[in-house]
Structure formats: structure tokens, C-alpha cells
Write a structure and sequence with these properties.
It contains 7 helices and 2 strands. It is mainly alpha-helical.
């Protein structure tokens, strides 16, 4: 694949991921302000096809665009960048050890665990401090919202372990399923297009 083609596909995948980032849905029994978007699946598919560098570029582009309408003063976008970058790096590194569908799935699941760990860190150091210090929210009020759907959440540690951790593990599984369903077909399609273009260029 030429450098120009890779840049073009990176831009296209980033555009799709940007659009999908605006469509969010909650997960039952999770803190109500935690929502899933499917942009990570697009990035993960792109990571397997084009590599880590282009995938991180996709994440950066979509988060920078989303930053223009941020409701978290950039803390949410930074957290998203760190979490998805962690997912992508781990997933692709595992996959490269032995390229197969099974290892790709293992890579995605390992990346999901790492992403969940990063999610705990970003919530502790970025998201919660923003809402408490930047927005003036009461910390106990945040936990009260969470406790309405999960009585086990009665403090910061419980919020991270019983809220953030399972939420991001579930999110990772959702992204993994979508990636496994779409990756191979997209990869074959894109590579066939590249072969066709290369053949036409040689013929000319």
C-alpha cells in the first residue's frame, strides 16, 4: 500500500470514527453518565489493517474535532485518546506475535483489559477532578447518582472497581465483537482495491 493510499484511508476511517463518536448509548446498571460509542471499533479495525501509527492518528483527529464541542474542557477527549491508544497498541502488538483471527481476538481482549485499567486512571486523575474542581459538582452527589443503579458504589474505590472497570470491560467486548465481524471483510476489500489500482497503473 502506498503512503498516499494509507493517508487517504486514515482520513476516511477518522471521519467515520468522528461521526460515530456522537452516537452514544448507556449500559444498564452502570453509572448513568458513562456511555459507549462505537468509534473505537473503527479505529481498532484500522489498526489491524494499517498499523498502530495510523490508528493513533485516527484517534487524535476524532478527539480534536470532538474537542470543539467538548463539555468536559478536554478532559474527556484526553481520556478517550489515552484509553483507545492503549487498546490499539496492546491489541496490535499481541496480533503481530502470530497473525490469526484467534490471536486478533486475544489481542483485542488483552487490549480491553488494559483500556479498562487506563480508564480507572483517567477517571481518578482527569474526569472526576474536572467535575469536582472544574464544574463544582459534589463528590458525594456523583457517588449517589451511581449508587442509584449500583448500591455497591459508595466511594471512589468502589466507583472505580464496580463502575469504571466493568463498564470499560463491557465496552471492550462490544468493540471486539464488531471488529472481529468486520475486520477481515474490510481488509480483503481494501487490499483488493489496492491490487486493482496497482494493476491498472502497471498496464498504463
Amino acid at each position: 500500500m502506498t503512503k498516499t493510499s494509507k493517508i487517504t484511508y486514515t482520513a476516511v476511517f477518522a471521519a467515520i470514527a468522528t461521526v460515530l463518536m456522537y452516537f452514544e448509548f448507556p449500559i444498564p446498571f452502570m453509572p448513568p453518565f458513562l456511555k459507549v460509542d462505537l468509534s473505537g471499533a473503527v479505529v481498532l479495525i484500522g489498526a489491524f489493517i494499517f498499523g498502530i501509527g495510523p490508528a493513533i492518528t485516527m484517534i487524535g483527529i476524532k478527539d480534536l474535532i470532538h474537542l470543539t464541542q467538548s463539555q468536559t474542557a478536554g478532559s474527556g477527549e484526553l481520556a478517550d485518546f489515552l484509553m483507545l491508544s492503549t487498546l490499539v497498541i496492546i491489541a496490535v502488538l499481541v496480533y503481530r506475535a502470530h497473525k490469526s483471527r484467534k490471536i486478533a481476538m486475544v489481542g483485542c481482549l488483552c487490549g480491553s483489559v488494559a483500556m479498562a485499567g487506563m480508564g480507572m486512571l483517567t477517571n481518578y486523575f482527569l474526569i472526576i477532578p474536572f467535575y469536582v474542581n472544574g464544574m463544582g459538582w459534589n463528590l458525594d452527589a456523583i457517588f449517589e447518582m451511581c449508587r442509584a443503579v449500583n448500591p455497591a458504589i459508595n466511594g471512589m474505590a468502589a466507583y472505580l472497581v464496580f463502575g469504571i472497570l466493568p463498564f470499560n470491560l463491557i465496552k471492550g467486548v462490544i468493540l471486539t465483537i464488531i471488529t472481529m465481524l468486520a475486520y477481515k471483510k474490510l481488509s480483503v476489500f481494501i487490499h483488493s482495491k489496492q491490487i486493482a489500482i496497482h494493476t491498472r497503473q502497471k498496464a498504463n
